């Protein structure tokens, strides 16, 4: 785990996880964007500036995605209940299916999340 990375709270960690899940197939579909907006509306009822988070994600090289994803999966794990994780994983599945095609990479990251959270 990257030591200089600051631990995120559950909502921020979830945002990072969803953004990476939506990006790993190489394209960001409008359907994925709408689902992420829905997540943000539920998690951040107050207006929150996520520009810094978006910048951090945008600056990642593709080969850094997995480490970043694992880091935020652990942040989410530390800050959530099992019920919240099960709910999030369902949402993540909806997200990767949003463009009606689940790529091998999307499936790999989805499985990685389930493994880290010990959900089957």
Q: Could you give the topology of this structure?
A:
Elements: H1 10-23, H2 30-43, H3 51-58, H4 65-78, H5 82-97, H6 104-116
Helix pairs in contact: 1-2, 1-4, 1-5, 4-6, 5-6
Give a description of the structure:
This protein is mainly alpha-helical and 120 residues long. The chain has one domain (10-116): TerB-like, CATH 1.10.3680. It is 66% helix and 0% strand. It contains 6 helices and no strands. The chain has helices spanning 10-23, 30-43, 51-58, 65-78, 82-97, 104-116. It is globular, with a radius of gyration of 13 Å.
Question: How many strand units?
Answer: 0
The 3D shape can be described as globular
Q: For this structure, what is the CATH class?
A: Mainly Alpha
Mean pLDDT: 92
CATH architecture: Orthogonal Bundle
Strand portion: under 5%
Summarize the helix and strand pattern as letters: HHHHHH
Q: Which class of secondary structure composition applies to the elements?
A: mainly alpha
The Rg value, from CA coordinates, equals 13 Å
Low-confidence stretches: none
State the helicity in percent bands. 55-70%
What is the count of helical runs?
Answer: 6
Task: Enter the CATH topology name.
Answer: TerB-like
Our measurement of the CA-to-CA distance between the termini, rounded to an integer number of angstroms, reads 24 Å
Task: Name the features.
single chain, 120 residues, mainly alpha, TerB-like
